[in-house]
Amino acid sequence: MRNSWVVLIELHTSPGGARTLPTAGLPLQSAGELFLRAARARGHRTAVVTVDHNYYGDHYDHLVDAWLITDSRDPAAVGHTLVALDSQIAAVHSSVDSFVRVAAQVARNRGLRGPDPDGVGIARDKGRARQALADAGLEDIRWAVLPAHEPDLSSPIGYPCIVKPTDGAYSWDVALVDNDDDVRSLARQHLARRYARRVRPEHRLLFEEYLEGPLISAEGFVDHDELTVFGFSDRVMSPPPRFVELSLRFSAEPPHPQALAFVRSTLDALGYDFGPFHLEFILTPEGPRLVELNARLVGAGMEQAIGYVSSTPPADFVVAKLTGHSPQMTVSGAVTELYLTAPQAGPLHTVEGLDTATGHPACRSAGLYYAHGEEVTDVIDSNSSPVGYVHAVGADREESYQNALEAAKNIVMGVGPAQAARHGAA
Question: Mean pLDDT over all residues of the chain?
Fold first, then answer.
């Protein structure tokens, strides 16, 4: 229905936040911005429920018809606030992990399309997800959960192991650990971390068996019995212990004969029955093993990058599904999002070569997550560490990756007191 409302609970912003930053080629748009544009393109009005409009500044004001200020963690408060809207509501959704379940509860209360609010897949609890796999009889890894503040914290499954918060984000406080001292140091780091938008972590740590193999993610949308897998992204990762993504490389080609069946059985086991998904798994010699399910599209700029090689941009697909339509998706070729690292720590003085980079015939976009004068780091310890990105397409994953590397060679950052140096792209 045209002029009906599509409501987002909080907005998924780009790594650089909601502001204008150095860029060339096609400007980088956040997941929130892509969703708002897709909703408007279908004739809907847009509303955003947030606890703090100032968190976003005025960056999205031209795309938002109504800002609704309330406690966005509380489904009852959100539902009450929606009374202010003056016509039919077509969809309620969130692409921010901490608010997906809130959106699902509000959508269910209003008879709108959305995932089962009681599904483990949107509970933001990786420990419960592991238990759900066991209950469904699926192959999984050794794991355990302990409070982060437990005295004399130690791994219940031995060492080495992966330790992460059960409800973490941005790869914060995720590491391969070898001993009790490392576990306790990570726990202290996690207990001291502050989250935005009044999100309060549970301060519980998941201990997982360490598996060697490529990290893959499936990108797509599930609509009960109808499964649409747009494609799969593999990664170039930083070395242990932090496992930070240095690039994502997407194409429609499945990475393993069992990949599609694994996606279907995992979504079923986790009770995730409607919505977009970004499902990460490791390819072991025994087959795929779950890392985690995110009930949203892939983050950073990769959603936009996938749109370069798909017949329907992912955000358009999601809005269409939420509002009762039956979109189609085909993918041709591959695309890479390559992350740029700083040559050293310090203030960012200059950046050169963005336009030259996007002059490469396969490069679609290049830019930074930082403004001139801001402090950048050369320490790569989480997915919020990179300072910029390059998007490039190709016939397959490897060609798109090589094209991104070639384009990135043109980008030079001047950081700190030293003279400009070329960046450290992987």
Answer: 92
